[in-house]
Amino acid sequence: MAWLAGFISAVTLECLILVSLLIYLQKLRKMCNSSRPSIPWVSRNIISAGLLLLPFVVISLSFLVSSELSCDHVDVLMSLYFVAFLHGINFLQILGLMKIVLLMFVVCCLSPVVCLTKPFTACYSLPSLDEGPEYCGYQLWDIPVSLCLFLKLICMVIRTFELRMRLNFSSSIDAEQDQQLHRKLRDQAYWLLENLIPSHVLTELKKSGSYHRDHKNVAVCFASVVNFQDFFDAKWKHGHESIRILNELISDIDELLNIDKYSRHIEKIKTALGCTYMAASGLVHEDPDHIFVMMEFLFDIKKVLAQFNRNTMGFEFQMKYGCHVGPVASGVIGQSAPMFDIWGDTVNIASRMMTTGIVGKIQVLEETVDALESRYSVEKRGKVYVKGKGEIETFFVTNPKL
Fold first, then answer.
1. Residue 38: other Cβ atoms inside 10 A
2. 105, 98 contact by CB (below 8 A)
3. How far apart are CA 133 and CA 130, in angstroms?
4. Mode of pairing for the β-strands spanning 319-333 and 362-365
5. E-strand stretches of 67-128
6. 69: which DSSP letter?
7. Active-site residue numbers?
8. Which mean pLDDT values do the consecutive 10-residue runs of the chain (402 residues) have?
9. Can you state the angle between helices 71-91 and 2-33, rounded to 10 degrees?
10. Radius of gyration over alpha carbons of the chain, in Å?
11. DSSP-based three-state secondary structure for 211
């Protein structure tokens, strides 16, 4: 049972060293993740392998230099060799073929040392006729043969271990790619939702699953391209090119909402009937000056249209503008393809201001003039018939006051 005791002692010792090694590697990981210069991969493996083999080397030297050792101590030393081989294979982060070559080199160097060095030579003896079947001496070739057989076993373990590591690595790569694809699709979905539904509405939807609000003072505007049908040509690439140009114009208007003062106060509601731009201010922040921001937005739309027409050869787009201030109700409707919208008499009047307006003019009612007259000049148009309202006095907002 001496060999079993030696093997258990060797395993216990190596386990203690592995614990120390794990602590050391954890410190190395922190060092590599910190701002300090990281330790190279080769240096980490050499240092850690040295720590792993240090007790093995010390005990081996103590055995080799001692002259009063029995054959039982050889069992202990061989157990240490085998355990050291196993830990070395599990630890070294190199290719399996390189591990096998390294172990073959170690065995080739270790075998003659073992065969020709005390106390191993003291345990070698040749059987004689006087010794019966209980002869227990080592033969000269026992340890090298044992090392070679153990090497064969280790080679099989290395191959199996490397195949599993490669499979795990491949599975990890596939999993990481799937996660990246999932994150990309999720980000695209969030991007689409944030473009379809305002961010503050989307936050409320995540919490309660529904959204509906009443707003007392909201400015609603409509800006419509009135001559798009004259520009649209179904024979010109089946109408695709005409739609592409309209999309460029709407996209140029959308870019205005990236400006900080507009992104804070104004929400794009939708593009109605393909060529009518609808927006509202005062839905998020109850700032009394939001009506002035909306009017600046309409004047900037006129500038965008003028610039777009200069870059569009052979055709000049024309737009009508309408705006009104008042109470509205907002909410999200639909479970599939949900849509954010606003309702109320304010929306209907703003739409009528646009449809009954004049090209290039911003038409409003007297209630809106009262809110704008401190900063904008207005021009009285006269009475205009508005569906559902009859004859109403309307005004044109001409320009900001200096």
1. 14
2. no
3. 10
4. parallel
5. none
6. -
7. 352, 387
8. 51 60 59 53 63 61 58 64 67 69 70 59 50 47 70 77 82 91 89 80 83 92 92 73 89 93 91 88 87 95 93 86 95 84 94 94 93 92 89 93 76
9. 30
10. 42
11. coil
Q: What angle separates helix 142-196 from helix 96-116, to the nearest 10 degrees?
A: 160
Q: 349 CB contacts (<8 Å, ≥6 apart)?
A: 324, 326, 365, 386, 389
Contact 99, 85 (CB under 8 A): no
- Angle between helix 199-208 and 142-196 (nearest 10): 110
Q: Which amino acid is at 167?
A: L
Token couple for 386: 């508005």
* Bridge partners for 386 per DSSP: 390
Structure tokens at 54: 């240090």
Distance CA 94, CA 310 (A): 66
- Record the pTM: 0.60
Count of positions (residues) in the chain: 402
At 70, which amino acid appears?
Answer: S
* Longest CA span, the chain: 137
Give me the phi and psi of 276, to 5 degrees please. -115, 120
